[in-house]
Structure formats: C-alpha cells, structure tokens
Amino acid sequence: NEYLEDSAKYRQTQEPNRDLRVLIESRLKKLEKNQSWLAKQIGVTSQAVSLYAQGKIIPQDKRLNLMFSVLGVNKKPKSLDGLIEED
Questions:
Q1: DSSP letter string over 17-55?
Q2: How far is CA 21 from CA 2, 16, 18, 78, in A?
Q3: How does pLDDT run across 53-80, given as a tens digit for each residue?
Q4: Residue 84's CB: how many other CB atoms inside 10 A?
Q5: What is the pTM of this model?
Q6: CA-CA distances (angstroms) from residue 57 to 17, 47, 76?
Q7: How far apart are CA 48 and CA 65, in angstroms?
C-alpha cells in the first residue's frame, strides 16, 4: 500500500522528538521500570515504545494520555518542553 509506505518514510525522516525521548527515559528511570513494562501497561508492542523512546514517533492523543498516566505525569502539558522542565 503506497500510503503506508509513504507514511513510514515520512516518520523516518522527521526530526526526533527529543522532549518525548527525555520524558520517557527519565520517568522510566525514576520508576525503575523498562520499555517492555511500559509497552504492556499501554497496550502496544515493545517496538512501538522503542520508537517513542527514540523520539521517532509520537503516539496519538489517547495513547499519549495513557502513557502520561502510567508514567505518573499528572497533567497533559501544553508542550513536552514544559513537562520536562517541571519534572
């Protein structure tokens, strides 16, 4: 399917989302958990969490909110920059 191929290529060429990467790494470290644990908690594959943690993709809002909840982030930030500074 051309759409899926183009979508995958687009995701690979996007700038990594450093803020999300730092957030995931710091919260998992604080919780003493790993990416596999997070994947199970939010119902995705370990590969998906790996892509989130590399900053290559950002989950859709529903999944992102669930991830924030699981990681103990109490509120949805206006930007990921603000969230990291608050932590």
A1: -HHHHHHHHHHHHHHT--HHHHHHHHT--HHHHHHHHTT
A2: 29, 8, 5, 17
A3: 988 888 888 999 999 999 998 765 555 5
A4: 17
A5: 0.69
A6: 7, 11, 18
A7: 15
